[in-house]
Design brief:
Blueprint: E1 3-9, E2 15-21, E3 26-29, E4 43-46, E5 50-55, E6 58-61, H1 94-104, H2 121-131, H3 147-157, H4 173-181, H5 191-196, H6 202-205, E7 211-216, E8 220-224, E9 230-235, E10 239-244, E11 253-260, E12 267-269, E13 272-274, E14 287-294, E15 301-310
Length: 311
């Protein structure tokens, strides 16, 4: 508890010091005798004029003299902080206020307004997105995008191995061959061209020139579909027929053998299936027209008599 000495003087010039503390009470009344519960150092104002202090168990009236000077100034006195010595309670300055805020406050203690927002990465990014373009930024080692640069980068650093195959398929020899085989291409094929096109030469399957193999005496004949699709054979010995260079699976090949004297000898057609699983009896000393077809790349063939013993 803080104590202070109050120095009072009466009209005779007698001065006395009275000890008061922070618990002193100010009473107001119309008659000093009406006040109760007072203690040493309490004050009383009577009729809003006279000021009393309770001291040594009695009320003592304080002088009502007018103030003659303030801080050594007289007349109409105006005081500023310049007239009063600075104590522990410092005067206000902008610098002191700013330093106090800087050192004792952060954004957690400030309510965010509607205009000046707290900083966040999202707000910063959105601000940049909406208000800046490459025209505002100097180009450095990270180059701006251009179509030319993008195309050059792809050309120099990517291949089909780096790209997922979509509806536009990669090129392969098989796909190219299948594409040709699936078109109505009309070419006059050689054996070499037929092989390159998967052995499909549609003009031959539509029956072009005949290949005359003459009279067979060796016992073995190859019907090469890359050469033609109409073969003329006169049998002069027991003979085994082999069919070569059929088109790839999925394409139908139909060819004809004009067979003379087939009934005079034993004939075998490799891989050929006949109607009712029974080879026909060919004409002795006459000519038969035999049709043969395949659709599985020459894995199997189906044979049938087109004309028997033609005259």
């Amino acid at each position: 508890m803080a104590h202070k000495l109050l120095q009072i003087s009466n009209e005779d010039g007698f001065t006395e010091e009275i000890l008061i503390d922070d618990t002193s009470i100010l009473f107001t009344a119309t008659d000093i005798t009406n006040i109760t519960g007072m203690k040493q150092g309490d004050f009383a104002v009577i009729n809003n004029i006279d000021l009393y202090i309770y001291h040594n168990n009695t009320w003592t009236k304080l002088p009502n003299g007018a103030v003659t000077s303030v801080n050594s100034k007289t007349g109409a006195v105006t005081l500023t902080t310049t007239d009063i010595n600075e104590g522990s309670n410092l005067y206000f300055t902008n610098t002191r206020a700013i330093d106090a805020v800087k050192n004792n406050i952060n954004t957690d203690q400030v309510i965010e307004g509607t205009t000046n927002k707290y900083f966040s990465n999202t707000l910063a990014i959105n601000a940049v997105k909406g208000n800046i373009s490459t025209s505002d930024v100097t180009e450095d080692s990270n180059l701006y995008f251009t179509n030319t640069r993008a195309i050059s980068a792809v050309k120099g650093n990517i291949s089909t191995s780096d790209v997922t195959e979509g509806s536009n398929l990669y090129f392969t020899n098989t796909r190219a061959i299948n594409a040709v085989n699936n078109q109505n291409i009309n070419i006059t094929g050689t054996a070499e061209n037929a092989n390159k096109l998967g052995n499909k030469t549609p003009d031959k399957y539509l029956f072009g020139q005949a290949t005359d193999l003459g009279t067979v005496t060796s016992g073995a004949v190859t019907l090469d579909l890359s050469a033609n699709n109409y073969f003329v054979v006169t049998v002069g010995a027991n003979t085994t027929f082999t069919i070569a260079n059929a088109p790839i699976s999925g394409n139908v090949a139909l060819f004809i053998v004009e067979l003379t004297n087939g009934g005079n000898y034993s004939l075998i057609f490799n891989g050929l299936k006949w109607q009712d699983k029974q080879a026909p009896i060919f004409t002795t000393n006459g000519t038969d027209i035999v049709g043969i077809m395949t659709r599985d790349g020459g894995v199997s063939f189906v044979g049938f008599i087109i004309a028997y013993n033609i005259g």
